Amino acid sequence: MNPYKPLITKYSGHTTIIRRIGKNNKVLDVGCNDGYLGINADKTNQFYGLDFSAICVNNAKLSGYIEAIQYDLNLLQELPWKKKFDVIIFADVLEHVLYPKKVIEFFTQNYLAENGHIIFSLPNVANWQIRANLLFGKFKYTETGILDKTHLHLYTYFSATDLVCSANLNIEHIESGARFFGYILAWIPALRGLLATNIIITSVKKNNI
Asked: Is the pTM of this model over 0.85?
C-alpha cells in the first residue's frame, strides 16, 4: 500500500503547488507518485512524470499523465523525451536523494525551458511539533511526514533557500504548506518557520531575472 497520499486542502503544500503550476504549461512532475498533482491541477496543463515506483508510474499514466517512467534520481540518466518543460516540480522528493543539489542542477540545465519555473516542496524540520519533542529529548523517525524514516536530509527555511540558491536559481516566492495552521500563516507569514509543515519555493534560472 502506498503510504504517501495527497493532501488537497485550502492551505496544504499540495494545494499551494497546484496554484503555482498555473495553466497551459508542460509540466515535469519529479517524484510523481500516483499522479495526484496532475489530477488536481488545471486540465490545460500537460503532465509528464518520474517515479522510483513502477506501480506509481502506471497509476500516474492511468490518471492522465501523457507519459511517466520509472526513474532513480540518484543515477540522473537522460530522459527519453526531447522536451523542455515550463514547470518542473520536486514535491517532497529531494529529501530522499543522496545529492539534492546535483539533481536540481541536472534538471535545470537539461530540461527547464527558458523562463520556466521550478517548484520545490521540502519538509520543515523546525515545525513546532518537532521542536516540542526535542524539548523532551525525542527525535523519532516515522513512516511518513517530516521525520519520514527514508529522509536523508532535513530542512529549515534557511537551509532550503540556501539549497535552491546554491543551484544557480533565484527565488520568486517562498510559501508554506500547513494543514492546521494555514489560515494563521495566510495572515502572519512570519510564523511559517514555526507552524509550516512544508516549505514551498518557486524559482527561476538566475539569468532569467
From this structure: yes
